[in-house]
Design goal:
Elements (H helix, E strand, L loop, with lengths): L15 H12 L6 E7 L10 E2 L3 H9 L5 H9 L5 H9 L5 E4 L5 E2 L6 E6 H6 L1 H25 L3 E4 L8 H14 L3 E2 L2 H7 L9 H7 L2 H11 L2 E5 L5 H16 L4 E7 L4 H14 L6 E4 L5 H9 L6 E4 L1 H4 L10 E8 L5 E3 L16 E8 L5 E8 L9 E5 L7 E5 L1 E5 L2 E5 L2 E2 L6 H12 L17 E3 L1 H25 L1
Helix pairs in contact: 2-6, 3-4, 6-7, 6-13, 7-15, 9-10, 10-11, 11-12
Bound molecules: adenosine-5'-triphosphate, 1-O-pyrophosphono-5-O-phosphono-alpha-D-ribofuranose and nicotinic acid.
């Protein structure tokens, strides 16, 4: 073991600065001030038109268990030098806040609150890193999976990425996220055991190489694995691999369930068409052609354009590592805090980069759905005390280019936030993963195709209510006045 401390809690899975900030709040006696933080990202990943939220279950596990263990406290005191009085405060700290969140599988867009945390300031601060870590990764991978599934459409996708994932947790929780995003099965057996996801697979080249002979390898595999898919590209796909697979299937007949062949190298378009022809001619019309080898949505789209005959896509590296965009940039920002007289005051972060200016205040999030066509008109962020469902007509306008606007009538305003934690108590029962995946699929049905295409999708509207926008402008003006006063004072 490289450390003398037992690894028995996740509370220290945080950045040092969170603990330092918490210490200052505590020393100044403001650690229990009510605060509101929101978690959101500013830009959709992969140039996609939407993201699929995942990660809530692990966030709730983290909050349920949030405490500093004896070994955490000993490490903070003995190695990092935190003083005994602050350690005594940390010893009893638990998460006592209230959390609203989108549900897993929900479609989410830029600049809208995915999770809202209302908690004593120090508690809300100490959980930031873990929440972002969990949501950023899982949402990224669920989105990549959904994007791939949009291109694949009707065929099956199997997730094969464990060997390339960024370590064990990423493989296991990543497999879960791909399932929420629409993938049918994973090769990771631990993910199957932990999350009840279907597990599936074929066999590797090592098996053929071990027997040094495809006939023997396939024959032996088929004896023990009734549903068998033979990997046919170890020596020569068309001349040896596929004919041998067919021979074994014929020789063993009803004793086995010959499910098909897997191609893992070469020209997938050409080989899949040839494989299809050979299987059909041999009478195995139901046998599937499974393909793998560095696939992603771009290659798949291209292979489809070439007329590839594929039934199952096995996708590893580029899915589980989100190869073309390795991070989602979700952030966690304070939007409101209790003042010295016990009232809540909104707070804003100004930036010269307009997209980094936060939207102050405790807010709600609605999906506005046209009752006539069942499609989403956009998402609508309001102040907490607003309820668009009670209005006959709302004006939706672009939060920056405000002249771009429309009036919406005859709509349903779906509240996208669910209360999942109430004063520290987890009150949300996680649905099954299948339910989450179905929910994501159903939610995609609300979107016009223009938002779902993989290349240059239209921008889905995420608008602020007039009240929310006015509040933001007022906060910006107040900060500007404060800055001007400061500068005047200096001169
Ligand atoms: N018809 C095709 N059109 C476009 N891309 C293809 C086609 N067939 C295969 N590919 C992709 O091209 C890449 C081929 O990579 P590469 O040449 O390294 O594979 P290979 O040599 O066939 O197999 P190996 O994995 O053994 O190196 C893979 O990403 C594969 O998915
Ligand atoms: O290509 P991916 O999308 O990551 O899918 C997983 C890959 O893992 C296996 O091969 P492995 O990488 O072990 O060896 P190979 O590259 O020589 O086939 C399998 O044969 C796939 O090609
Ligand atoms: O089952 C398979 O075919 C498989 C599993 C992991 C990686 N590559 C392939």
């Amino acid at each position: 073991m490289s450390s003398n401390y037992v690894n028995d809690s996740l509370a220290l899975h945080t950045d040092l600065y969170q603990i330092n900030m918490a210490e200052s709040y505590w020393a100044d006696g403001i650690h229990n001030r009510k605060s509101v933080f929101e978690l959101f990202f500013r830009r959709l990943p992969f140039g996609n038109g939407y993201a699929v939220f995942a990660g809530l279950e692990r966030v709730l596990d983290f909050l349920r268990d949030f405490h500093f263990s004896e070994s955490d406290l000993a490490y903070l005191r003995d190695e990092l030098g935190y003083k005994e009085d602050f350690i005594a405060y940390l010893k009893d700290i638990r998460f006592t806040g209230t959390v609203h969140s989108m549900v897993e599988g929900e479609l989410v867009f830029a600049n809208e609150p995915i999770i809202r945390v209302e908690a004593p300031l120090a508690e809300a601060q100490l959980i930031e890193t873990a929440l972002l870590n969990i949501v950023n990764y899982q949402t990224l991978i669920a989105t990549k999976a959904s994007r791939i599934k949009q291109v694949v459409k009707d065929e099956v996708v199997m997730e094969f990425g464990s060997r390339r994932a960024h370590e064990i947790d990423a493989a296991v929780w990543g497999a879960r996220a791909t399932f929420i995003g629409g993938i049918e099965a994973t090769s990771n057996v631990l993910a199957g055991k932990r999350f009840n996801i279907p597990v599936a697979g074929t066999h590797g080249h090592s098996m053929v190489q071990a027997y040094k002979n495809e006939y023997e390898a396939f024959h032996s595999y088929a004896q023990r694995h009734k549903d068998c898919i033979f990997l046919v590209d170890t020596y020569n796909t068309l001349k040896i691999g596929i004919p041998t697979a067919i021979q074994v299937a014929k020789d063993l007949g009803d004793q086995i369930n010959f499910r098909g062949v897997r191609l893992d190298s070469g020209d997938i378009a050409f080989l899949s068409k040839e494989a299809r022809k050979m299987l059909d001619e041999a009478g195995f019309k139901d046998a599937q052609v499974v393909v793998s080898n560095d696939l992603d949505e771009y290659t798949i789209l291209n292979l489809k354009a070439q007329g590839a005959k594929v039934d199952v896509w096995g996708i590893g590296t580029k899915l589980i590592t989100a190869y073309d965009q390795p991070a989602l940039g979700a952030v966690y920002k304070i939007v409101s805090i209790e003042n010295t007289t016990g009232e809540m005051e909104d707070t804003i972060k100004i930036s010269s980069t307009t997209e980094k200016v936060t939207t102050p205040g405790r807010k709600k999030l609605y999906r506005i759905i046209d009752r006539e066509n069942g499609k989403a008109e956009g998402d609508y962020i309001t102040m907490y005390d607003e309820n668009p469902a009670s209005e006959k007509r709302i004006k939706m306008f672009h939060p920056v280019h405000t002249f771009v606007s429309k009036f919406v009538t005859n709509f349903e305003a779906k509240d996208l936030h669910v209360k999942v934690v109430e004063q520290g108590k987890i009150i949300y029962d996680n649905p099954t993963l299948l339910q989450m995946r179905d929910y994501a699929k159903e939610s995609l049905g609300l979107l016009w195709d223009e938002y779902k295409r993989s290349l240059n999708p239209e921008e889905y509207p995420v608008d602020l209510s007039q009240k929310c926008w006015d509040n933001k402008m007022r906060n910006i003006r107040e900060v500007q006045e404060m800055v001007e006063e400061f500068i005047d004072g200096e001169e």
